[in-house]
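[step 3/7] fold_predict: job queued, chain A
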Amino acid sequence: MWKKFLKKSGWTDIVVSLIFVLFGIMLIARPEAIESVISILLGAILIVIGVLKVIDYYSNGKQDNYLLAVAVVMVLVGIIFMFCSNIILSVFRILIAIWIIYSGILNLQTAIVWKDYKSKLWLITLLLAIATIIVGIYILVNTGAVLQTIGVAILVYGLVDIIESFIFIKKVDNYLD
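[step 4/7] structure written:
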C-alpha cells in the first residue's frame, strides 16, 4: 500500500515539475507576455468576484455590509492587478521562491532518509536539494531579477525536482520490497 502511494506521489511531483519547466521556458521566451497575461487574468478574476459579491449583497436585501466592503475591495484590487503588473510580478516571485525553498527542504529531508537507508544516491539528492534551496533564496532576495532569470531558475528547479523524483521512485522499489 505504501509503495503504491509513494510511487503515485513521486509521479505527481514529476507532473508538477514539468509544469514548472514549461512555465520557466515560457518566462525565458516571452517574459512580458507572461507578466501581462498573469496580471490581466488575476485582475479580471478579482473584478468578477467583486461584482458577484455586489450582486449577492443586493440579492440578500443589503443585510451584510461587510459583503459590500469586500466587493469594493476586490474590484479595486482587481483594477490594480490589471494596471500594475509589477506588483503582481513581486508577489508571484515571492510565492514561487517560497514554493521552491519548501520543495528543497522536503528534498533535504528525503536525502537524510536515503542516507539512513545507506543509499549511494543520498549525496546527489543532498546536493540537488541544496541547489534547489539556493535557487529559491536567489529568487526571493533578488527583487531586481529580470523575468528571464526567474524563468531560468524555475526551469532549473523543475529539472532538478524531476531528477529527484525519479531517484525517489527508484528507491521506493529498492527499500519497500
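[step 5/7] annotate
The chain has one domain: 11-175.
Helices lie at 2-29, 31-59, 65-83, 85-116, 122-141, 147-175.
exit 0
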